[in-house]
Amino acid sequence: MVDTRVEVQDLFDAYLWIAVAVAAIVFGTVGFAAIRYRHRPGREPSRKSDAMTAELVYVGILILVVAGLVTATFTTEDKVDAVSSDPALEVDVTAFQWGWTWAYPDGVTVTGNSDAPPTFAIPVDRTIRFTLRSRDVIHAFWIPEQRFKRDAFPNRTTQFDLDFDEPGLNDGVCAEFCGLRHSQMAFNVLALSEPDFQSWLADRRGGTS
Amino acid sequence: MSPPNGVAAVERAPSGPLAWVAGADHKVTAVRTAGVALIFFIASGLLALLMRTELAQPGLQVISEGTYNELFTMHGSGMIYLVVTPLALALGLYFVPLQVGAAEIWGPRLALSGLWLYVLGGAIMFAGFLTDQGSGRTGWAPTVPLATDHWTPGIGMDMWVLGVCLAVLGMFLTGLCVLATALRERAPGMTLLRMPPFTWTLVATCLMVITSFPVLIAAMGLLEWDRHVGPVFDSAGGPALFQHLFWFYGHPVVYVMFFPFVGAVAEVVATFSRRRFFGYSLFVISMLLFAALSMSVWAHHMFTTGQVTNQYYSLTSHALIIPAGIEYFDLIATMIGGAILLRTPMLFAVGFILQFLIGGLTGIIVASPPIDYHVHDSFFVVGHFHYTLFAGSVFGFFAAAYYWFPKISGVTLREGLGKLNFWLLVIGTNVTFFPMFFLGFDGMQRRIANYPASSGFGDLNLISTIGSFVVALAVLVFLINLWVSLRHRRPAGDDPWEGQTLEWATSSPPPRFNFRGRLPEITSFAPLLDRRERAKVTEAEAAS
User: Domain A89-204, CATH 3.40.50.970 — does that match?
Assistant: First the structure.
């Protein structure tokens, strides 16, 4: 089981701290140069105009940084992109202007749109397989709490796994601009314990809410 | 190769109203291009102020969702197609011929037609506001099927598509002329490896212009065909195909809007550090590498589609760290050991280096697909690209404007107003755009007029909106500076900054064919610095 939220957050934190360190070095160096090498009467600027060896060493360091970042990214992406062979639950998600339909096994479907955003339940701590498609234009399925989004295209499906490790409500939105009511194409994902989820599903079996 | 003098005798310049449509002096064409771009800058900026006003609080207060969609489309497409690209290329149009010692641009009438196509395209795009169903309203980077006739009907959208085609065609022609000038019109002695850093950045820029801009024209042409003739993109792979075509232009254009300002900043940093630009040869290689790589990163805009090989585009995108790192090294190494004068152009150049850095570093963050899964199409990305395009390119533009205005107009801009302009812009930029990183990471998606009060996004949005009005104030100070400086003229002289490149060896403004009499001897990429250094040696010898 892969926790997308943790994987992405960890990777983001690593990138962020490297970025902060680089920013500190550059701000520091520029600040130093601007103060230390201010123009003063009698100061002659340096005539030196390159330092090829130093710069090539620096390029070597840059290449190592690139290699390190790419390795970290690929490792995380392999985990996040992987789809499990035996998910606990499979849900078919259809996006449309401007709402969502989730089709659960046994014919339970839940639909809602910008007038009445839907709430979809899933069992907590289980691998959920999502199969995502669009009925019309491109949309994007984004659950910020899970640090994950995927685009929904018409005429094709895409699959991904998510695992909600905390019970409670997650906000979901459409992230790909899709026309007039794009901003209101929201949904909620309610992570329930397995028994609560089963009774939620049973309440809806045989009908559509 | 025209000699720098002696050409004037054979050409009669058109005068009167005819000069407006047929005057082919590259300097006039460039100033007009920049002038039109400034008008579109103000127009697109006012649209942004309206958007920020709407976003200041949750709920809809000022404009409707439909209007907001038109505004963000016209703000983004205005700024990219009609402001920053033309400003970047106008700098090249004016200064590349001067820097390589040419009397004229290659293809002056082609460059002039570039201006008119651009003006026409921009006017058509904005005229869409006057139509019943409104202007283009699917973003600066439209998607299919949303942008097809079925989902976004109306003549305003068609005008947007065709206007973009014309404006991009115009800038393609401008880029072609600038490239040909650097390659074909150089003065004797001006070898490729004696071209100044700015000219090299324009060569890299225009190589991207001529390879990527035609693809956008094709993509938009096919979109228009799909809208009114017959289906083009309605297969299962069609929507992704359109994105590939679009971003094959859409990524390189980001660097088209960036490189010329890197070049301008390189000239400013060298001039105001009173020394030769550091690491020239690696800088030239890095610009060419940068341009080449930029043609192979486009699908990093499509990581969340699940339809591209993310690893490949992530690798090429990360590799951009190498040329970008070389640039930063050279810019900062030029300052270290210099004798730095912090005049307004240099302030903006240092501002560019530090402010763009935030855009560059967040760019590396979004080059990682798993992170992009979260922040793509969120305000994090909006913050990121405004740090590159606004905190980067616009700061670079101001550095270039304060640096070269004396050459173009013959008068210097006011230093006090320039410093006020700079500090207001620094404050406004960061107050506007920094909160966006938090908003996006916390879940605020792009292209929304409204967000629920329960989201807690209200406070940061209010701060961002206040910042945007400080940015507007900074731009106003710049316009006042232009007006005051042109009204109460303080003559600049030929070379107010101790420039290093050939544009400073002619009068301000330069004559019709750029140079009178003989050019200084071209011994390196900084011929005027060479001349000053030789004079010092002679002086020292005479004294001893």
Answer: no
In order, the DSSP letters of A54-119 are HHHHHHHHHHHHHHHHHHHHHHHHHHHH---SS-SEEEEEEEETTEEEEE-GGG-EEEEETTB--E
Residue B7: partners with Cβ closer than 8 Å, 6 or more residues away? B103, B104, B513
Q: What is the dihedral of CA B262, B426, B503, B285, to 10 degrees?
A: -10
Which chain A residue has its CA at the smallest distance from B452's CA? A184
**Interatomic CA distance for residues A118 and A129, integer angstroms:** 19
Q: Which residues of B touch A178 (CB under 8 A)?
A: 146
CA distance A170 to chain B (A): 11
Q: A28 Cβ partners below 8 Å, 6+ apart?
A: none
Of the CATH numbers 3.40.470.10, 1.10.287.90, 3.40.50.720, 2.60.370.10, which one belongs to the domain with range A4-81?
Answer: 1.10.287.90
Q: Is B448 on the interface with A (CB under 8 A)?
A: yes
CATH number of B28-543: 1.20.210.10
Instruction: Copy the structure tokens of residue A167.
Output: 């019970």
**B236 contacts B303 by C-beta, under 8 angstroms:** no
Per-position pLDDT tens, chain B of length 544: 444 444 444 455 667 777 777 778 999 999 999 999 999 999 999 999 999 999 999 999 999 999 999 999 999 999 999 999 999 999 999 999 999 999 999 999 999 999 999 999 999 999 999 999 999 999 999 999 999 999 999 999 999 999 999 999 999 999 999 999 999 999 999 999 999 999 999 999 999 999 999 999 999 999 999 999 999 999 999 999 999 999 999 999 999 999 999 999 999 999 999 999 999 999 999 999 999 999 999 999 999 999 999 999 999 999 999 999 999 999 999 999 999 999 999 999 999 999 999 999 999 999 999 999 999 999 999 999 999 999 999 999 999 999 999 999 999 999 999 999 999 999 999 999 999 999 999 999 999 999 999 999 999 999 999 999 999 999 999 999 999 999 999 999 999 999 999 999 999 999 999 999 899 999 999 999 999 999 989 998 888 7
Number of neighbouring beta carbons within 10 Å of residue B188: 11
Please give the torsion angle defined by the CA atoms of residues B328, B334, B335 and B337, in that order, rounded to the nearest 10 degrees: 140
Cβ neighbours of residue A110 closer than 8 Å, sequence gap 6 or more: A101, A102, A104, A118, A119, A120, A204, A208, A209
How far CA B331 is from CA of A27, B324, B385, B501, in Å, comes to 13, 11, 22, 17
Of B181, B525, B497, nearest in space to B330 by CA: B525
A124-135 in b/e form (b: 16+ CB < 10 A) is bebbbbbebbbe
Residues B515, B528: contact at Cβ < 8 Å? no
CA dist B249 to A196, B88, B218, B436, Å? Answer: 51, 16, 10, 26
Sheet-wide strand order for A119-123: A119-123, A186-192, A168-174, A139-143, A148-152
ipTM of the prediction: 0.96
Across the interface, do B275 and A45 touch by the CB < 8 Å criterion? yes
Q: Chain A closest CA to B332's CA: distance in Å?
A: 6
Q: Which of B315, B321, B357 sits opposite A62 (nearest CB)?
A: B321
Q: Residue B278: closest CA among chain A residues belongs to which residue?
A: A49
- The ranges assigned to domains in chain A are 4-81, 89-204
Evaluate whether A123 touches A141 at the Cβ level (below 8 Å).
Answer: no
User: Any residues with CB less than 8 A from the CB of B183 and at least 6 apart, and which?
Assistant: B203
Token couple for A185: 């194409």
Q: Which residue has the tokens 């910020």?
A: A144
Give pTM, 2 decimals: 0.95
> Per-domain residue ranges for chain B?
28-543
